[in-house]
Amino acid sequence: MAVQDALPGRVGSGGNAVLNDQRVRGVIFQVLLIVAIVSFAWWIIHNTAVNLRAQGIEFGFDIMLDSAGFQINQTLIDYQETSSYVRVYFVGLFNTLLVSLIGIIMATIIGFVVGIARLSNNWIVAKAAYVYIEVLRNIPLLLQIFIWYFAVLRLLPPKREAIDLGPLGLLNIAGWYAPSPVFGPGFDFVVGAILLGLAASFLIRAWARRRQMATGERFPVFWTALALVVAVPIVVYFLADALTKGAPLTMEYATQGNFGPRGGTRIFPEFIGLLFALSFYTASFIAEIVRAGILAVPHGQTEASFSLGLRPGHTLRLVVIPQALRVIIPPLTSQYLNLTKNSSLAVAIAYPDLVSVFAGTALNQTGRAVEFILITMATYLAISLVTSAFMNWYNSRVALVER
Amino acid sequence: MKKPILPLLAGAAFALTAASASAATLDDIKAKGTLQCGVSQGLPGFSNPDAQGNWSGIDVDTCKAIAAAVFGDASKAAFTPLSAKERFTALQSGEVDVLTRNTTWTMTRDTDLGLNFTGVNYYDGQGFMVRKDLGVSSALELSGASVCTNTGTTTELNLADYFRKSDMDYEVVAFEKADEVVAAYDAGRCDVYTTDASGLYAQRLKLANPDDHMILPEIISKEPLGPVVRQGDDQWFNVVKWTLFALVNAEELGVNQENVEEMKDSDNPAIKRLLGTEGSFGESIGLSSDWAVSAIKAVGNYGEMFERNVGPDTELGIDRGLNRLWTDGGIQYAPPVR
Ligand SMILES: N[C@@H](CCC(=O)N[C@@H](CS)C(=O)NCC(=O)O)C(=O)O
User: Fold this and answer.
1) How confident is the model at residue A251 (pLDDT cuts 50, 70, 90)?
2) What is the three-state SS of A116-137?
3) Residue, of A94 and A326, whose pLDDT is higher
4) Which is nearest to B87 in space by CA: B137, B141, B132, B154?
5) How far is residue A349's CA from residue B337's CA, in Å, rounded to a whole number?
6) Which of B116, B130, B173 is best to mutate for the A interface (most A CBs within 10 A)?
7) If we measure between CA atoms, which residue out of B172, B155, B168, B169 comes closest to residue B219?
8) How confident is the model over B280-330, as pLDDT tens digits?
């Protein structure tokens, strides 16, 4: 500032001095920008309203309470043809979230495996990972969705036949008929045992850490936790089975109907096709991110770790990965967002996601394009913001703590 | 530097807002020199492109008849393929001038959507197609079946109504594009394919083995299919409506593609009015007096249009049934030109 004031020509420009002040000018331009944006938004909205009215198209959200009249096959909440468009919205939203969430988990696991394999010293493993990445990320996703879907359909036996997966149910062209769990009276005890086991494990971990810090003695936390969370509940299960009438948990299987198996938990082929396409496609990008993250950790870190006597597995887990994560998390977030948004391609293969049933079928049955699209856009925005907020929080946790 | 940005911006906004929404479609079309029709993405008999990209079908002919009535030249018709889901938005936004795309006339579409149906060029109804080896002979045996269909159609709603009414359960698999419905049904994903009966005959031709499939006897709905225009432009509405009526009247009066020129000399006053040798009916809808002559020359009368595209001698082989003239026991009926 002082330097600026001393500039020749600035001195004595009188009334303009205020306008020449950087801060004042900054504020003025901010205000102008806001006014411009608001007028533009107002113009768009006004124009839309005028044009809609001129064309005799109704506008309003009360239509959302009307009953939809069409059926949807995969619904995570109760839904009938008589349900309202509001319910259609939630059916679609949950289907979007379901495929996105499972897709994100699968893509992350595959992506990490492939990314690490890409750096393997084994020539075949590294090349296989390389080919995977190059092939999958260079074929358009929509095409991959079709390939997976129609491959799933063509490979599986027709509707009236099925591959018997034994305890896992039946599999055919109409999907996977997984067993449905039926909970008996004693199941509450099992759930209680699992929860108690989890709580105890956390306490034990904290205690073991403190003790290790203080004395250097190690405690087998993992095996203890496994025993508490898995073994104890199994014992409780058999106790409950013996003490109450009826098993705590039974599995209900599909039965043979006129047109193939019926009942059980249906996993639709549309879901499987979309899930696989999204996961394998996004994994190819995640693999590159993971590779870049690991390469970003200087080799000196590994050497230092080795010279401290850490084994390679420990070196990767305790030294390299935590540092690599700092590089990995931000771009990983955008991949998660991409996967969620890409799930809207579902409509191509009849998976009833939000875009397909709400911004698609429902919009078309009512003709209320503006309302349905506005709600859908706001929803995707909200999902994306929540995802990035979570990832930002996680990023700040793994970020370098300066000591 | 102190330019009055804000007033300028606001002024521009007002100016642009004033852009009128309901233009005179007919004038626009004449100025453009082409008539843009929304059609399906490929439904044999109705609107289907061949390998060279030439469109044919009863809906395509309806569009060509309108182009001929307006320009005296059917080749001025241009086609925009639209999925069931896209079609109304495309018409509302002005991307197409008229929708000739096997579209069912319903109350919502005619009122809420800001559209007007101009008539019916094909009386249809919804049917079911199944594999013959399924051993089903009636739609009432379909409880528990999975059904493939198109989203954004009346088909979806009728299906739900029918199964609910008959107390049967089912599973719907609804695709946006017709080709995917065919592919999924053909792969065996669904037991049943449902759409307008005419559509079933047409899509059956696309299956790997058309003879392995049969259409069940039940027709579960009324599907009057016809051209659609935007609401609020009565002149254009009249042009489309009366072009269709002219084709039906022509059949009734025995005027066809071949004899239309001779018929101009006919003594029958109804024919004279239709062909513009008496009165000024063409002028009253903003066209020339020989509007109907051009339309009939381009595609023939309604009966010829039907026989050529979907009739018994075509691949589809559909009986005229309901689409016979009212004088022949059908319900095709056009108000008189007078
Ligand atoms: N008439 C019904 C159904 C129209 C419809 O979309 N039918 C499908 C199946 S026959 C179709 O035209 N497919 C061809 C395409 O999408 O290009 C309606 O207006 O909702």
Assistant:
1) confident
2) HHHCCCCHHHHHHHHHHHHHHH
3) A94
4) B154
5) 49
6) B173
7) B155
8) 999 999 999 999 999 999 999 999 999 999 999 999 999 999 999 999 999
Q: How far is the CA of B179 from the centre of ligand 1 (A)?
A: 11
Distance in angstroms (rounded) separating the CA atoms of residues A334 and A332: 5
Same domain, B153 and B245: no
CB-nearest partner of A360 from B152, B157, B232: B152
- Domain locations in chain A? 14-54, 85-139+278-398, 182-252
Helix ranges, A85-186 (H): 85-118, 123-137, 141-155
Residue B322 lies in a domain: yes
Residues of A whose CB is below 8 A from B112: 57-58, 366-368
The contacts of residue A67 (CB under 8 Å, 6+ apart) are A81, A82, A83, A84
The CATH architecture one would assign to domain A85-139+278-398 is Orthogonal Bundle (1.10)
C-alpha pair distances (Å), A305 with each of A121, A290, A291, A294:
19, 20, 20, 15
Backbone angles phi and psi of B311, in degrees to 5? -60, 180
Ligand 1 pocket member B82 (CB < 6 A)? no
Residue with tokens 């100025």: B31
Range of the domain at B209: 126-221
Count: domains in chain B:
2
| Closest listed residue to residue B79, CA positions, set B48, B110, B43 | B48
The two most distant CA atoms of chain A are separated, in Å, by 97
Compute the half-sphere exposure of residue A150: CA atoms within 13 Å on the CB side of its CA: 15
Location of structure tokens 């030294």: A319
Helix pair A123-137, A85-118: axis angle to 10 deg: 150
Size of interface A-B (CB pairs under 8 A): 148
> B188 pLDDT exceeds 60?
yes
Residues 6+ apart with CB under 8 A from A82: A67, A68, A69
Where among B221, B254, B288 does a domain terminate? B221
* Nearest residue of chain B to residue A345 (CA atoms): B176
Distance CA A182, CA B285 (A): 70
Last residue of a domain, one of B199, B221, B243: B221
B235/B111 same-domain check: yes
Is B224 a pocket residue for ligand 1 (Cβ < 6 Å)?
A: no
DSSP annotation of A362 reads I
Residue B84 CA: nearest ligand 1 atom is 6
Q: Is the Cβ atom of B178 under 6 angstroms away from ligand 1?
A: yes
Ligand 1 lined by B199 (C-beta under 6 Å)? yes
Percentage of chain A modeled with pLDDT above 70: 95
Nearest Cα of chain A lies from the Cα of B130 at a distance, in angstroms, of: 12
